Amino acid sequence: MSHPEPKLDADGVNALLRRAFPGADQARTVQITEVAPGRLHMVAPYREGLLRPGGVIAGPTLMGLADNAAYALVLAHIGDQLMAVTSQLNMSFLRGAQPGDIHAEAQMLRLGRRLAVMDVRLWTESADRLAAQANVTYAIPA
Question: Who wins on pLDDT, 123 or 27?
Answer without folding.
Answer: 123
